[in-house]
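Bench notes, afternoon.
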Amino acid sequence: MSMPRPPRKRSLSSMGMGRTSTLPAERSTKAAFRSLSMGPLLLGYCSGCCEFDSSLAACFAHVNTKRLTHVGDGASIDSFRMMNEMDRNYLPQSVLRAAQVLDFLAGAGRPMRLSEISRSLGIAKSSLLGVLAALERRGWLEREGLKGAYRPGRGLLDLSRKAFGEWDLPVLARPLMEQLAERLGESVFLGVLQEDRVVILSCVEGRGQMRVTSRPGTSLPLLAAATGKVLLAAMEPARAMEILRKHPLPGFTERSIRDVGAFMEEVQRAKTMGYALDDEEYLRGIRAAAAPLMRSGEVVGAMWVVGFSSVLPLERLEQAGRELLRTTELLSRLISFQAGG
């Protein structure tokens, strides 16, 4: 009785790069190979040299040792490099959508429902659900109840601490912020600079019946009055002017400074005094004073005092700015010491 003959090995070239029918085992191998980022490219390279049962190992051996000696179909090493560079530039849509959601919610200033996020970002609800669920599982988003709105989660603060060093800025700052809020009777905020936003890390509310508050994770525009003035004042002049060129001065209220020259005068005044003031320039009926936080000579964020204009006259606001400056100078020394600067 004769034994059945084993299936004949077939090279990629004999199969015409997938244009002819293939055996089931070959078809599955080919599908798996093409699922790799460089699959189609490597198939092109090895179409004349590798048998199917060893193509994967052979192709990677060629790439890893740079021995691309069997180049089929007129391909070249230069085209391989070009295609590999294109592969590195590929950006997965799911990752981009997650980044869009985080950036949008950080700047929204309030929790947002699924329908609002979908409408604002122009992304279908069905495409957002998986992204939101993954971000919530990581702790980077939180929900108000099972079907509630989404807001930035505390996991983002943990991620920030891991990314920017061992020093825990909110923990270091908290006692100083509490003392300042007790002395002034107004709310005190702490925030760090992240690209073109200031992200709130901590808030100590004032003791008055009327007080301003905001949740950690909320972000403000970089050029939001007092904080914008002190942050630009702490930067190199060239960098400050570059930011103003890229970001036109917004008109938050009728008192907002829209002229670049006038705003730079305020920035220079903040550099001289060490703090900056906001007289209803960012929010109507709200005044604020801000001072920068420095780490080894580099600005990393700001601390600011906020109160209602009706109970915080300009004279008290100036006093708050001076006390705030003493607090931020001390905190800047602490974080610079921890950083070894």
